[in-house]
Automatic annotation (TrEMBL):
Belongs to the SDA1 family. Residues 573-675, 715-756, 772-834 are annotated as: Disordered. Keywords: Nucleus, Protein transport, Ribosome biogenesis, Transport. Residues 118-474 form the SDA1 N-terminal domain. It comes from Skeletonema marinoi. One of its GO terms (biological process) is ribosomal large subunit biogenesis. It comes from the Eukaryota. Required for 60S pre-ribosomal subunits export to the cytoplasm. It holds the Pfam family SDA1_HEAT. It is found in: Nucleus, Nucleolus. The keyword Transport applies. This is Protein SDA1. Residues 599-766 form the SDA1 middle domain. Residues 651-670, 797-826 have a biased composition (Basic and acidic residues).
Amino acid sequence: MSETASCARSAPLKLSQLQNFCKRDPAGYKDDYDAQSRRLTSLVGILLLSPNADPSPSLVELIQFMAAVSSSSYKGEESDRVAALLMELLVGTSNSASSSATSAANESAATIPLLQSTLPLAALQLHRDIRKACVSALILMRNKGAVPPLRLLQSFFQLMAVVPDKNLRESLYHHIVNDIRNINKNGKKDEKLNRTIQSFFHRIVAASANESTAGAEDSPTDYAAKRAVQMICDLYRRNVWNDERSVHILATAAASPNASVASRALRFFLNIEEAMALDKQNSETNEWEGIDNINLHLHSKKTKGKQRLIEKQIRNRKKKQNAREHGIIANREDKGVEASKKLFPAIELLHDPQGLVETILKRVKSSGSNTYKFEVKMLMLNFVTRVVGNHELILLPLYPLLQRYMGGHQRDVTAILAYSVQSCHQYVPPEEIYGILKTIAHNFITERCSEEQMAVGINAVRSICARVPSVLSTEEDETDGDGREISSSWDVEAFTRDLAGYAKHKDRSISIAGRGWVNFIREVHPSLLQGKDRGLVGAGLHKAGERPLRYGEVRAALGVEGADLLAAYEASKKRKEKGGKKNSVGSDSEGDDDSESGWVEMNDGEEGGDDESESGWVEMNDEEDESDEEAPDLVLLGDDEEGKEEEDVDGEKGDTVDYSKLSKKERAKMQQEVSSTRIFTASEFAKMHKLVARQQQARRDPRLAAKLKRAIAKGEEFDDISDSDSDDSDDEDIHIKGAVNNTDIMADAKRKRMSKAEKLEKIIEGRVKFETNERAGGSTNTEKKRKKNFAMSKYSFDARKKVGEKTTAKMGRKQERSKLDGGGRDAKKRRRKF
């Protein structure tokens, strides 16, 4: 034994002192530690025999001491024995034995046994202070690496599911989430451990889905499943578990009969993109604010160290600002990649979306009115329609179900209409959409409905037809292979013109919705409108034969769209460059005859300073030639090459073919040939996008088409196309594929009434703004007038105008006005009757 231990033997040691000595000299104080270990074992045995009795006051301190010392000084068998003792105290003898038996196997990647829904009576009756001390001790040992993570996972989940202690459950939840985050931090993920934990979570959620029934009370397994789903959602949002296994667990939870478990998973799928985008934006804002705020030490002593620190912070801010601006510009210009990239789309990672939506839809249809709340049913319908629209699934029983909820007085009917819109896509048969359109027309677009209902109905019809344009195909368009017309019970033309008549409605919101419908039909199928309603764009597209594709019809692409226009643009540019080069060659050849002998002729009016220039000729030296600007190098061409050059410039041979005179078949052939023989760059794709957009705009606008035709005749077809590839779009919102918001189909003209909370918030905002006086400078004239003395302002014009004139003053002015009019009543004599 060491000298420190022999000196400490003279007086009894406190546990804090013994912990310090064991840390310094573990071998010297091993006997004292063993004595405290035997004491803990005896106290735990006594507590298990009588859990209702009050625990010893020193037991909590002894538990913390054993956990801290065993995990640091005596890690190994001693720490495992202490952890097993604490788990036996928490969850009982049978559970701790099973967990200790599998702890060694877990290290070799064995699975965790299923969660037990009950605890022994001694564990349930344990005092809350002792339970809290045991949990904190096990967490301390896990943080020091003395206990493997899988060994604690089952015990902690069992405690969360059974023990009715809210604070304890919150601490267990945060520990499990932070432990998994620490395992996968800094980009180093333990896939083997993650797979084992995720399989344990999946078995808990699957057990809850198999055992629970719709409308029943929550069991301990259901509560554990809710906690597992919440953990996975939190880890997915923090970019720890954003893989297919996590999405599969949440999909299993979404199909659970338990309303609490299913609603948590459904809200995750519907809102995860906005939540992750908001977190990213907040983190970037906080990071920039921390860099932007620099303490310049304006009111403190100036030292060299402070000055160096300020300069370093300014350089760092400038560097971050340049990187930030470069990132913003890159995201704005790169429309092909960044604009289409989404934040870990969970719905697109579903393994079997068709089976999942069929299960949920079947549950919604078969459940009674008291099985699920209306909010839960709305969540299910929102999720089903979002998945159907995102994956373009065929789910025919969905559309008759949506028609049942489309009553005029239905609760949250605007959300139902939005779900109907987002459930539509191009592969839905038009016969299914006809029923929805008829229901909306009968329940919303009638004169007995309110103005807002009619506007919402017209906007919903327009959005549905925009997603399924095949419903607008008429009988003339629907023909079979032999050219025979296919009969249809839906009079599209009458329906379209009926809605177009609302563009001239007296209510502003209805007229806005009607004009939106007319503009949409002008773009898609202008032949359905009357000639007076087609407008300039509709007339141009009607002349071009614009119509929507029939159901099942596909226009196969023969190459990259705009490749033929790019070839024509490059040929025109090359032709102009060759023409300019030929002109420069001709002008240079004219001056060669005079400059061959090295003499330059001067005009008579020019002054010559030397005697040599008296005859009008000046000799040029070689040194003066070299001091002037160098002329461009000219390549002498032979007769054959000059003839070929002239033919290329004139557009008769070579690459300078007149592309404007090619037919559609020749254009398509050239487009296919150019697409198969070239590799396009990002700038060329941007150029093709511009050319195609201009061509589409010319189809819509006859004036622009005529202008373009005149430019083609003059050879100036591509003069208005710039070489810059920048795009001025500043749309920074988060767009989720397949999502439709309620505000997208609501009426636009009417001002919405604010709620009481919104009114109070506006009042407080104005009050704070007025009290803080955010404007620069002194007080305003209004504030000065309000603070002015009353004796100075009571005879002012504003005060007299507010109070009004006195009666005598009014009479006086009235008499003066009557005199000006000609004397008043005396000017007209009364006539008496005789």
